[in-house]
Design brief:
By secondary structure, this protein is of the alpha/beta class. It contains eight helices and five strands, in the order βαβααβααβααβα. A five-stranded parallel β-sheet has the order 2-3-1-4-5, with helices on both faces.
Length: 217
Protein backbone atom coordinates (compact mmCIF):
# COMPACT_ATOMS: atom_id res chain seq x y z
CA UNK A 1 0.00 0.00 0.00
CA UNK A 2 1.28 3.49 -0.84
CA UNK A 3 1.87 5.40 2.37
CA UNK A 4 1.92 8.80 0.67
CA UNK A 5 -1.30 10.45 1.83
CA UNK A 6 -1.03 12.94 -1.04
CA UNK A 7 -1.48 10.21 -3.65
CA UNK A 8 -5.08 10.35 -4.90
CA UNK A 9 -7.26 7.27 -4.84
CA UNK A 10 -7.63 5.69 -8.27
CA UNK A 11 -10.77 6.76 -10.08
CA UNK A 12 -13.46 4.37 -11.25
CA UNK A 13 -13.33 3.12 -14.83
CA UNK A 14 -16.90 2.67 -16.08
CA UNK A 15 -17.68 1.46 -19.60
CA UNK A 16 -20.99 1.64 -21.46
CA UNK A 17 -21.61 -1.09 -24.03
CA UNK A 18 -24.50 -2.16 -26.24
CA UNK A 19 -25.80 -2.05 -29.77
CA UNK A 20 -26.11 1.09 -31.86
CA UNK A 21 -29.10 3.16 -30.76
CA UNK A 22 -29.10 1.77 -27.21
CA UNK A 23 -28.73 5.21 -25.62
CA UNK A 24 -25.14 4.95 -24.41
CA UNK A 25 -24.34 8.61 -25.01
CA UNK A 26 -27.33 9.72 -22.93
CA UNK A 27 -26.36 7.50 -20.01
CA UNK A 28 -22.73 8.62 -20.17
CA UNK A 29 -23.91 12.22 -19.89
CA UNK A 30 -26.33 11.53 -17.03
CA UNK A 31 -23.79 9.42 -15.16
CA UNK A 32 -21.18 12.12 -15.48
CA UNK A 33 -23.61 14.62 -13.97
CA UNK A 34 -24.37 12.19 -11.14
CA UNK A 35 -20.71 11.64 -10.25
CA UNK A 36 -19.94 15.36 -10.45
CA UNK A 37 -22.81 16.14 -8.10
CA UNK A 38 -21.18 13.72 -5.66
CA UNK A 39 -17.97 15.73 -5.81
CA UNK A 40 -16.00 13.57 -8.23
CA UNK A 41 -13.81 14.68 -11.11
CA UNK A 42 -15.02 12.95 -14.25
CA UNK A 43 -13.72 12.44 -17.76
CA UNK A 44 -16.10 11.13 -20.41
CA UNK A 45 -14.67 9.74 -23.64
CA UNK A 46 -15.46 7.32 -26.46
CA UNK A 47 -14.05 4.57 -28.61
CA UNK A 48 -12.67 4.52 -31.10
CA UNK A 49 -11.41 8.00 -30.27
CA UNK A 50 -10.23 10.04 -27.33
CA UNK A 51 -6.84 11.08 -28.78
CA UNK A 52 -5.83 12.76 -32.01
CA UNK A 53 -4.51 9.55 -33.58
CA UNK A 54 -7.45 7.52 -32.26
CA UNK A 55 -9.95 9.94 -33.80
CA UNK A 56 -8.16 9.66 -37.14
CA UNK A 57 -8.30 5.88 -36.91
CA UNK A 58 -12.01 6.19 -36.05
CA UNK A 59 -12.70 8.05 -39.28
CA UNK A 60 -10.71 5.52 -41.30
CA UNK A 61 -12.41 2.46 -39.82
CA UNK A 62 -15.99 3.77 -39.59
CA UNK A 63 -16.50 6.23 -42.42
CA UNK A 64 -17.35 5.04 -45.91
CA UNK A 65 -15.01 5.73 -48.81
CA UNK A 66 -11.69 4.36 -47.55
CA UNK A 67 -11.73 1.23 -49.64
CA UNK A 68 -12.00 -2.35 -48.45
CA UNK A 69 -11.05 -3.02 -44.84
CA UNK A 70 -10.64 -6.72 -44.16
CA UNK A 71 -11.58 -8.23 -40.81
CA UNK A 72 -8.05 -8.52 -39.36
CA UNK A 73 -7.13 -5.00 -40.37
CA UNK A 74 -10.33 -3.71 -38.82
CA UNK A 75 -9.62 -5.48 -35.52
CA UNK A 76 -6.05 -4.18 -35.43
CA UNK A 77 -7.14 -0.61 -36.20
CA UNK A 78 -9.54 -0.69 -33.26
CA UNK A 79 -6.82 -2.12 -31.02
CA UNK A 80 -4.31 0.53 -32.12
CA UNK A 81 -6.79 3.32 -31.41
CA UNK A 82 -7.48 1.75 -28.01
CA UNK A 83 -3.79 1.49 -27.14
CA UNK A 84 -3.28 5.21 -27.65
CA UNK A 85 -6.49 5.95 -25.75
CA UNK A 86 -5.44 3.90 -22.72
CA UNK A 87 -1.83 5.10 -22.58
CA UNK A 88 -2.49 8.78 -23.24
CA UNK A 89 -5.90 9.39 -21.66
CA UNK A 90 -7.61 6.66 -19.64
CA UNK A 91 -4.78 5.35 -17.46
CA UNK A 92 -3.31 8.78 -16.56
CA UNK A 93 -6.71 10.13 -15.56
CA UNK A 94 -7.51 7.09 -13.42
CA UNK A 95 -4.16 7.45 -11.66
CA UNK A 96 -4.94 11.11 -11.04
CA UNK A 97 -8.10 10.10 -9.19
CA UNK A 98 -10.61 10.99 -11.89
CA UNK A 99 -13.51 8.73 -12.80
CA UNK A 100 -13.43 7.77 -16.49
CA UNK A 101 -16.66 7.03 -18.37
CA UNK A 102 -16.08 5.42 -21.75
CA UNK A 103 -18.57 4.81 -24.55
CA UNK A 104 -17.36 1.34 -25.69
CA UNK A 105 -14.15 -0.52 -24.83
CA UNK A 106 -12.66 -4.00 -25.36
CA UNK A 107 -16.01 -5.82 -25.20
CA UNK A 108 -17.09 -4.04 -28.37
CA UNK A 109 -14.13 -5.56 -30.22
CA UNK A 110 -14.86 -8.99 -28.77
CA UNK A 111 -18.46 -8.71 -29.95
CA UNK A 112 -18.07 -6.94 -33.31
CA UNK A 113 -14.79 -8.39 -34.55
CA UNK A 114 -14.55 -11.58 -32.48
CA UNK A 115 -18.12 -12.73 -33.11
CA UNK A 116 -19.55 -10.45 -35.80
CA UNK A 117 -16.52 -10.77 -38.09
CA UNK A 118 -15.88 -14.39 -37.02
CA UNK A 119 -12.27 -13.75 -35.98
CA UNK A 120 -12.75 -15.53 -32.67
CA UNK A 121 -13.14 -13.95 -29.25
CA UNK A 122 -9.87 -15.37 -27.91
CA UNK A 123 -7.78 -13.97 -30.77
CA UNK A 124 -9.34 -10.52 -30.49
CA UNK A 125 -8.98 -10.61 -26.71
CA UNK A 126 -5.26 -11.35 -27.09
CA UNK A 127 -4.47 -8.31 -29.21
CA UNK A 128 -6.51 -6.11 -26.91
CA UNK A 129 -4.81 -7.46 -23.80
CA UNK A 130 -1.57 -6.13 -25.28
CA UNK A 131 -3.18 -2.87 -26.45
CA UNK A 132 -4.64 -2.05 -23.03
CA UNK A 133 -1.82 -3.46 -20.89
CA UNK A 134 -4.50 -5.52 -19.15
CA UNK A 135 -6.71 -2.60 -18.10
CA UNK A 136 -10.26 -3.68 -17.26
CA UNK A 137 -13.35 -1.68 -16.31
CA UNK A 138 -14.53 -1.59 -12.70
CA UNK A 139 -18.07 -1.77 -14.10
CA UNK A 140 -19.49 -2.41 -17.57
CA UNK A 141 -23.03 -1.16 -18.11
CA UNK A 142 -24.62 -3.12 -20.95
CA UNK A 143 -27.64 -1.45 -22.52
CA UNK A 144 -29.42 -4.31 -24.24
CA UNK A 145 -31.54 -3.55 -27.31
CA UNK A 146 -32.74 -5.49 -30.34
CA UNK A 147 -31.25 -4.73 -33.74
CA UNK A 148 -34.63 -3.59 -35.10
CA UNK A 149 -35.27 -1.22 -32.19
CA UNK A 150 -31.75 0.18 -32.41
CA UNK A 151 -32.14 0.88 -36.12
CA UNK A 152 -35.50 2.57 -35.55
CA UNK A 153 -33.99 4.79 -32.87
CA UNK A 154 -31.14 5.83 -35.14
CA UNK A 155 -33.54 6.77 -37.93
CA UNK A 156 -35.78 8.67 -35.52
CA UNK A 157 -32.77 10.58 -34.17
CA UNK A 158 -31.68 11.60 -37.71
CA UNK A 159 -35.18 12.50 -38.89
CA UNK A 160 -35.37 9.47 -41.17
CA UNK A 161 -32.03 10.12 -42.85
CA UNK A 162 -29.86 7.02 -43.01
CA UNK A 163 -26.37 8.20 -42.06
CA UNK A 164 -25.13 4.80 -40.90
CA UNK A 165 -21.40 4.24 -40.63
CA UNK A 166 -19.70 1.05 -41.89
CA UNK A 167 -20.75 -1.06 -38.90
CA UNK A 168 -24.19 0.46 -38.43
CA UNK A 169 -24.92 -0.32 -42.09
CA UNK A 170 -24.53 -4.05 -41.49
CA UNK A 171 -27.82 -6.06 -41.67
CA UNK A 172 -29.97 -6.78 -38.63
CA UNK A 173 -28.81 -10.40 -38.34
CA UNK A 174 -25.23 -9.13 -37.86
CA UNK A 175 -26.38 -6.80 -35.11
CA UNK A 176 -28.40 -9.55 -33.44
CA UNK A 177 -25.23 -11.65 -33.28
CA UNK A 178 -23.51 -8.70 -31.66
CA UNK A 179 -26.33 -8.36 -29.14
CA UNK A 180 -26.08 -11.99 -28.09
CA UNK A 181 -22.28 -11.77 -27.95
CA UNK A 182 -22.56 -8.93 -25.43
CA UNK A 183 -25.03 -10.93 -23.35
CA UNK A 184 -22.71 -13.95 -23.34
CA UNK A 185 -19.80 -11.78 -22.18
CA UNK A 186 -21.95 -10.43 -19.36
CA UNK A 187 -23.11 -13.90 -18.41
CA UNK A 188 -19.48 -15.04 -18.11
CA UNK A 189 -18.54 -12.25 -15.67
CA UNK A 190 -21.76 -11.13 -13.93
CA UNK A 191 -19.92 -9.40 -11.08
CA UNK A 192 -18.46 -6.86 -13.52
CA UNK A 193 -21.65 -6.11 -15.44
CA UNK A 194 -24.91 -4.28 -15.02
CA UNK A 195 -27.25 -5.47 -17.78
CA UNK A 196 -30.19 -3.15 -18.44
CA UNK A 197 -33.16 -3.20 -20.81
CA UNK A 198 -32.42 -0.20 -23.02
CA UNK A 199 -36.10 0.21 -23.92
CA UNK A 200 -36.76 1.59 -20.41
CA UNK A 201 -36.82 5.35 -19.98
CA UNK A 202 -33.57 7.24 -19.57
CA UNK A 203 -34.63 8.16 -16.03
CA UNK A 204 -35.36 4.54 -15.08
CA UNK A 205 -32.02 3.42 -16.45
CA UNK A 206 -30.18 6.16 -14.59
CA UNK A 207 -31.87 5.17 -11.32
CA UNK A 208 -30.55 1.62 -11.72
CA UNK A 209 -27.09 2.87 -12.62
CA UNK A 210 -27.07 5.14 -9.58
CA UNK A 211 -27.95 2.23 -7.29
CA UNK A 212 -25.03 0.18 -8.64
CA UNK A 213 -22.58 3.06 -8.44
CA UNK A 214 -23.48 3.70 -4.81
CA UNK A 215 -22.15 0.20 -4.07
CA UNK A 216 -18.84 0.98 -5.80
CA UNK A 217 -18.43 4.43 -4.26
Amino acid sequence: MNSDASTPARGLFIVFEGGDGAGKSTQVRLTRQLLERNGGEVLSTREPGGTEISEKLRSLVLEHGHGTIDERTEALMYAAARAAHVQQVIAPNLRAGRHVLCDRFVDSSLAYQGVGRNLGVEKVAAINEFATDGLRPDLTILLDISAAEGRLRRLTHTGGVDDSDRLEAEPDDFHERIRHAFLELAKAAPQRYLVLDATASAEQLQDLIRERLEELL
